[in-house]
Amino acid sequence: MSFFAGCGGLDLGFLGGFNWHGESFRRLPFDVVTALDNNEQAIATYNRNIPGNHGAVVDLAKVLTSSLAPADVLIGGFPCQDFSSCGPKRGLESDRGQLFRVLSRYMKKHKPKIVVAENVPHLARMSGGTVIETILKSFEGTGYKFAVWDLFAPDFGVPQRRSRLFFIGVRNDIVESYGFPVKPVPKFANQHRSIDWAIDDLIPIKDDSIPNQSQYFKASKAKRGNGQGDEKNRCGEPSYTIRANAKSRVHFHHKLPRRLTVRECARLQTFPDTFTFEHSATSSVMQIGNAVPPILGHAVASSIAKFMKSISTITKTGAA
Predict the structure, then answer these.
(1) I need a surface site. Which of 85, 90, 99, 145 has the fewest CB within 10 A?
(2) pLDDT above 50 (res 59)
């Protein structure tokens, strides 16, 4: 079962069986049950690219938990805008900031074996740590033990400076008998992939022979001090974080005098080139920026799959 599925970055990571930039990511023993999000265009992208037509447009704030199917695994990147250092920072004071409780309600009703929730690192620093304490109290109060993995995406092969918190929950009765999943090993900790390594092959391509490569905003850099558009990515380093704001300053190319294309943003987020975005550049970049990089999701999912195999409980596991 997947909540706040967006265009499917975390779900693709859990499913596996995809290729990105010449590298294969093995199929994992998870199947999609249902993927829910309130963004119609994101769900259209999800269903176009992830087989099974499992994506559905649903307002999770209003859905009855009892109407949802049970699953062994619950995943969800609950909305991060009010927890982000770049957002309004309203935290738990907004309706959107309370949406993590949708996960708690599902856990209380359906008792999945494993829960994987995702959000931004700034959440842990808000209000002196009381915000993350409130979230963990809500999660653990439904009968789970949780650990928080703070993962730096370049350490796992993502050519983009992006850090994320993963809330990993295991039902108490399973913890007592089998322990806990092991945090994934950062195989690229001392050899981060750079933006030029990831997208320089796209430079000569001006059309959509590789999908979405022709789409980009033709805005120039803003004047110094405006706070938007006055920086560009640097060769030899991972890119800046791909943000959901399509006109943010971090979307400038490292060599060319233009913003990054939709495909370049998707490549830096580790979506396969076969994963296509059919909406406007604004909508597509928003979907890409809101997503979990699939290969980072795959690293987390691989640890979860290994743990579930060790306890011999994989039947038809609902990963999304």
Answers:
(1) 85
(2) yes
